[in-house]
Structure formats: structure tokens, C-alpha cells
Amino acid sequence: MVHTFFLNGYYLALDVNSGAVHVLDEETYDILNALLPGPIPEECGENVVAALSGKYPEEDIREIYGELYRLQQDGQLFSEDDYERFTDLMKGAPIKSMCLHISHDCNLRCKYCFASTGDFGTGRMLMPVETGKKAIDFLLTHSGNRHNLELDFFGGEPLMNWGAVEEIVKYARSKEAEYNKVFRFTVTTNGVLLNDENIDFINREMKNVVLSLDGRKEVNDNLRVTINGGGSYDIIVPKFQKLVEQRRNGPFPEYYARGTFTKYNLDFTEDVYHIDALGFDQLSVEPVIADPSEPYALTEEDLPVIFEQYEKLAKEMIRRKKEGNCFNFFHFMIDLDQGPCAIKRLRGCGCGNEYVAVTPDGDIYPCHQFVGKEEWKMGNLETGELNTEIKDKFACSNVYTKQGCRDCWAKFYCSGGCNANNYEHNGDINIPTKLSCEIERKRVECSIMIKAAMAENA
Amino acid sequence: MEHIKTINKANLKESCAKGGCGECQASCQSACKTSCTVANQECENQSRIQSK
Fold first, then answer.
1. Are strands A2-7 and A363-365 parallel, antiparallel or unpaired?
2. What distances in angstroms separate CA A49 from CA A37, A45, A53, A226, one per listed residue?
3. Where does the pLDDT of residue A60 fall: very low under 50, low under 70, confident under 90, or very high at 90 and above?
4. What is the pLDDT of residues A129-153, one digit of tens each?
5. Cβ separation B22–A64 shorter than 8 A
6. Is the pLDDT confidence value at A210 over 70?
7. B 3-42 near A (Cβ less than 8 A)
8. In the prediction, which pLDDT does A339 show?
């Protein structure tokens, strides 16, 4: 399968199954498009020459055809999809990654919150330390031969139960040598309760920290409001700046300022630039996950504007990269040479199989977005039960079982999309959401185009 | 005239030979939490990286 596209003056071809990216001239682009879907025979057919001879000299057509054929022989064009044999590899996989819901309470009332403003519809509650320690034990004993274990402190707002976080981290560290494991802690916070002490702890212990900020003050304060209805921007920005400034000198430089864009700020590139201008050069601004009936929800009619915004952002990033001072935008990160292996790309995030979420009362769900959906409860830390039927369902869900993914050129970049998103919109983890697919495909095109532009510059 | 410039090493097929170790980060443990973006995750398979 080959995907061709023209973007920002670049004629591009992605050979989906090998991952090869080719920058073409216009002539080659036209000829390749005439040859799709491929593969092609060694000799250029007279019908191909006839179809293009009005536009290009026959000699050029035959020369370019020969180049395309050589790419095919080298496995970089029209390569075969032979990955389906790997689909069962992750059945019975160890669980090595966890979203720990340390607090089902929050001190903000963000209007788009998928967690029902913090409690996931299950009642406001903080996780007892003992439950957190059992979660650590669960990971240690269910992670098989996996060395790196990931644990994200999530909520609600994790800082509302910070004493428990510190104790759980200390407990986990005390077990690393015995089990030959390394815990990689992360935390996702709204920043309201950040202070010198917890900033110091975060920067010492957390491999990554996700700082929630939507961008411009009026955009952020429209939806990210306090319990009293006031804006949060002025409270959190100076604290985030302090954290990031101190983090640069610590053992873990990684962080993300993470925003959400909605129908209210379709000009979200302005929010990207604003976040960068505040001093946060590692950033992500992502489309809101919402019921389509919500006034802030993104709908298919917004796609042209969203596409235009992503293109605008990509062009600006190229300009800044060439100047040597560009921020990093999470959704345009792509490694065309040494990214994840194809086996990883078949099934994406690993939720429900390698990755689970644990609630304050010890219930286990496939991921944070399934929490509160009783039908997806997989077990409980107290009882030790774990529903392997649900685990296997996720293990066996992949780009070949998901509707439409097999024939999609972007399948090895999004890996079938978000299972929770699929379930929420279509009632089935195997039916992707059209809106998300369209947005993802645009982002991948922009990411590849940026690589092409920078390769030209190199 | 150069008609085609290939900008990467096409290694998706080769990646399977030593792939599937499961050590790489779950994508939702990075920045997203609401969107599945996998191609930007780093490979953590030391034997695969060292063979390059």
C-alpha cells in the first residue's frame, strides 16, 4: 500500500508496509499515482505511457518508471503487509504499566472533564496508602520479565492526596532491587496545589510530568475553572514555570504542558504559540474528547478548520526549526528511522492488556477512560481477581480486527486509535471514530511533511 | 535529474526480527491520555538499537 499526498509544496509518498518515505518531483508524483495501487511489472506498459504522454515525454516516463520499479525491488515501494502473523504475540502479555487514580477528587471544575469533574461518576474519594502499595505489588507480580514499569499518578487531581503519592513512591523504590525492576513514575496535574516541596519531589522522582494548561488566558479560563467558577490561569502558570525552570537541572528533563482544544478555540495554533511563549517548549494541545451533543465538542464540520490549523502549525514549526528555536509538539513527533517496532504498532497503547487503571478502592479497569463503566471492570486488588476474558479481548484487538484499519494508510502510526474513544462513540472498541481518524491522518501527513522539509534543509 | 529522494531507512520489516519485547512506554503514559499516538514512542529494545 502506498499513500501519496501533496502538502506545503512537497510531493510525498509513504510506503505503508516498509515505512519508507519518498520525496518526489511533480512528474514522478503523477506517474506513481497512475500506477497505484501497485505492485508494478518490470516493463512499463504501453497503457501507462499512453495515459501520461500528453503531459510528459515518453523518455521521462520510462526513466521514472524504472526508478520506481527499483524501489519496489528494494522493498521500499509496494511492499507487502505480512504482519498479521504477529497479532497473537501479545496474548497473555505481562502487565507493566498502570494509571493509578490516587485521587477521585479535584479542585477544578473543568467543563469538558471526561472524569465527571474528578470522581468518574463513582463518588469523591482519595486512595488509601495501603491500596497504593497493593497496586505496586500487583505490578511487581504481574509484570513478568518486563524490566521497566510505568506508573502514572492520575486523578482527579493527584496533588490532593500527595502524602500518599510520596509514601507509595518510597515503597516502590524499596522493592526495585529485590524484583530487578525500575519504576518510571509520572504525574498529571492541574498545578493548583504545587508548592516548593512537591515541585522538588516531582522533579526528583517523576520521569515525566504532564502540566494541564489550555493556552491563552481567556481560552484556559473559559473551561478550566475553580470550584467557585473563577479562572485557573493566574494560579497555575507561575507554578508551572517554577517547576519547569527547576526541572531543567534535574535528573528527568522530560515534561509536557498539555492543553485541550475545543470548538471554542478552533484557532488552537495560537494557544500552542502562547504556551511556548510562556516558557513551555515541550507541549501538546489535543482535541477534546466529548459527547457530540456538548456545545464544545468537535464535529466533522470543524475538520477543514482543524486541518488548516495543523498545516499552519507545521509550516511555522519548519520556520522555527530552521532558525534553531522550535518547540516540540507532541502530535508531530515521529521517528521515521528508529520508532516502535511493527509488532508494537499493531495494537497501540496496550490498554487492558499491558496497561491498566486502578481506582481509589482498588478496582481494575482497562484504562483511565474506562473507569466507572462497570461492564469493563476487570478485577480488584483486594480480591486478587483479574478477568482474563477482558484482557484477552484487548490483546486480540489490533489493526486487522478494527473496522477500516486494514485498508488505512495510517494504521502503523495511530495503531487503531483509542479503544475507549471507539467504545464511547461506537459502542465497540473495534470500531474507530471517524473524526479521530481524520484528525490523526492529517497530523501524520504534517509530521512527514516536516521531516521532508528538514531533510531538504540538511 | 533526481526524481526521488528517500528520506529514511525503511526498517519496519526489519523491526520485527528483534521486536515485540514490550519494554517501550505505553503511549498514554506520555502526554496524551486521550489520544492513541504510537509512532512517536521511543524503541527501548537495546538489542534492536545496538544492531543498527
1. unpaired
2. 17, 7, 6, 67
3. very high
4. 999 999 999 999 999 999 999 999 9
5. no
6. yes
7. 3-13, 15-16, 18-20, 22-42
8. 85
CB contact under 8 A, B27 and A349: yes
- For residues B48 and B46, what is the distance between their CA atoms, to the nearest angstrom? 5
ipTM of the complex: 0.90
**Do residues A192 and A108 touch, judged by C-beta distance below 8 A?**
yes
Regarding pTM above 0.90, the answer is yes
Distance of residue A230 Cα from the nearest chain B Cα, in angstroms: 25
Identity at A135, one-letter amino acid code? A
**For a pLDDT cut of 90, what percent of chain A falls above it?**
90
Interface check for A452 against chain B (CB to CB < 8 A): the answer is yes
By the 10 Å C-beta count (0-12 exposed, 13-18 middle, 19+ buried), A413 is classed as buried
For residue A348, give the nearest of B5, B23, B38 by CB distance.
Answer: B38
What separation in angstroms does the CA of A374 have from each of A97, A317, A370, A392, A395?
21, 43, 9, 18, 20
C-alpha cell at A103: 485521587
Compute the distance between CA of residue A283 and CA of residue A81 in angstroms, rounded to an integer.
Answer: 34
Give A114-124 pLDDT, tens digit per residue.
Answer: 888 888 888 89
d(CA A152, CA A139): 12
- Compute the average pLDDT of residues A261-276: 98
Distance from CA of A347 to the nearest CA of B (A): 9
DSSP-assigned letters across all residues of A105-129: --SB--TT-TTGGGTTTS--EE--H
C-alpha cell at A76: 521500499
